[in-house]
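TASK: fixed-backbone design
INPUT:
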């Protein structure tokens, strides 16, 4: 295309791969010269990327189980599939026919393998899979998919999307829920640990797709929701933010990242559109690209110049986006080349730096600050009652955490409540040193007959002279306090301050 206006609309090739059969998944292979599609009936087709011509016979599981997920190895020569019977298989295609070179056992719970993903940091040494029961397994390819590392602790009911981080240390899983989960892979211990559960949206929305990404200065996670929104979460402590611009109006089926420049994102939706996003500016790139039916899947070529999309009516669209992205992003094209203007400045950020995790350091059990408010911060009313008090050292085995709570917490709660009740302004008055200064609080004593006598904490005349209040009684808002052992103990510890002698 010669004109700039035409370059803003990418060239496309529409291929009818099946009649009225949904395209479940799509991927490029053999250095982007071919692409493979997974149809709704479980068959796989390989076609030329330039012409769309079918190559060889369709693949099909000989065991009769339907294939529902595919992913191509980093070298482009092998294909991993997940089936309804819970098995993971690795296929080798010689140009005409495909052969299974490795096959796993059935999943322990017998549920479907909804998604598969090759590890790219090590050239495809492992395959990660997510199952319909919410479990995850990592399979070593060199052992023939034997002795996998698995976990059921993902906090998700179903898993429909899984992806490796760039360094291979983490997995991102999602499955039509309000949350996504980050998993840490411990190869030495052969364990998969739950690192973080991130809540992205509220009812009635759910996460329908997710992928790793990066902005200009940090790693990020991008998710698509069932209401059409695209959310980005910058790590480690960022909050989910919606990308700006004209977005989708229906369920987002796929969010895929350009490999040469991980700032360019493509998303497809049931609103029959394909959108491109600049994660540096967090905005859309030009206008949506229309399809004939709901778009169900998408894939970037490894060089970032082609995008393939599949629809629910059996069509595949191949989009040549090299010139389209370079003109729609005038400062920098999809492959990082200068597009005729100053390149956006990048901050001090290494794209290959490790993604921060939350399980790097061992966590100690947290002690709730009080009995009645275990999740709130301890109220501060000035200097604490027990700041200078040290617990007695007992030569005995260390008690449990709950036992340590039971010794000190009731006293601290009582002291905190007493301190709040006695928190009044100080008024300097002439009183004997033995009298306790209680402000507006009255002191209750017992006479020699055992009768209770109430003595005003502040003489009325003195209060009126110093405060200027003449119409209000001195005992307004007073609290009766019995002179008990607890009160005496609080007096000795300075909880109730005494009035100093008046200096002439």
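OUTPUT:
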């Amino acid at each position: 295309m010669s004109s700039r206006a035409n370059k803003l609309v990418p060239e496309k090739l529409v291929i009818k791969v099946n009649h009225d059969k949904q395209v479940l998944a799509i991927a490029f292979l053999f250095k982007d010269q071919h692409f493979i599609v997974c149809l709704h009936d479980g068959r796989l087709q390989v076609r030329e990327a330039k012409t769309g011509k079918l190559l060889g016979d369709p693949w099909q599981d000989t065991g009769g189980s339907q294939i529902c997920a595919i992913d191509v190895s980093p070298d482009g020569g092998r294909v991993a599939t997940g089936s309804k019977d819970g098995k993971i298989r690795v296929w080798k295609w010689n140009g005409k026919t495909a052969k299974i070179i490795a096959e796993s056992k059935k999943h322990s719970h017998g549920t479907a393998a909804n998604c598969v993903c090759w590890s790219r940091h090590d050239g495809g040494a492992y395959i990660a899979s997510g199952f319909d029961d919410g479990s995850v397994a990592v399979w070593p390819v060199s052992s023939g998919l034997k002795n996998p590392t698995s976990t059921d602790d993902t906090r998700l009911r179903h898993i429909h999307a899984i992806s490796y981080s760039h360094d291979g240390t983490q997995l991102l899983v999602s499955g039509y829920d309000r949350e996504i989960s980050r998993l840490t892979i411990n190869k030495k211990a052969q364990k998969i640990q739950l690192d973080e559960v991130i809540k992205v949206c509220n009812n009635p929305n759910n996460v329908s797709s997710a992928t790793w990404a990066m902005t200009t200065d940090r790693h990020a996670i991008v998710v698509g929701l069932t209401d059409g929104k695209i959310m980005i979460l910058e790590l480690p402590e960022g909050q989910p933010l919606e990308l700006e611009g004209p977005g989708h109006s229906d369920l987002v089926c796929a969010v895929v990242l350009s490999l040469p420049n991980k700032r360019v994102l493509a998303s497809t939706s049931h609103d029959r559109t394909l959108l491109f996003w600049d994660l540096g500016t967090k905005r859309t790139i030009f206008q949506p690209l229309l399809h004939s039916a709901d778009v169900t899947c998408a894939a970037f070529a490894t060089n970032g110049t082609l995008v393939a999309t599949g629809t629910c009516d059996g069509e595949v669209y191949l989009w040549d986006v090299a010139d389209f992205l370079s003109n729609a992003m005038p400062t920098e094209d999809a492959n990082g080349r200068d597009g005729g203007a100053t390149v956006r400045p990048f901050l001090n950020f290494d794209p290959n730096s490790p993604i921060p995790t939350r399980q790097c350091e061992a966590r100690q059990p947290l002690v709730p600050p009080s009995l009645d408010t275990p999740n709130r911060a301890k109220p501060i009313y000035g200097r604490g009652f027990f700041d200078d008090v040290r617990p007695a050292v007992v030569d005995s085995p260390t008690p449990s955490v709950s036992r340590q709570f039971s010794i000190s917490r009731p006293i601290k709660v009582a002291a905190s409540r007493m301190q709040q009740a006695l928190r009044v302004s100080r008024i300097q008055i002439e009183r004997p040193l033995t009298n306790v200064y209680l402000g507006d609080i009255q002191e209750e004593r017992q006479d020699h007959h055992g009768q209770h006598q109430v003595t005003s904490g502040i003489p009325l005349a003195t209060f009126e002279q110093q405060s200027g209040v003449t119409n209000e009684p001195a005992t307004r808002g007073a609290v009766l306090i019995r002179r008990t052992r607890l009160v005496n103990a609080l007096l000795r510890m300075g909880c109730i301050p005494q009035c100093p002698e008046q200096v002439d």
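COMMENT: The longest strand covers residues 191-199.
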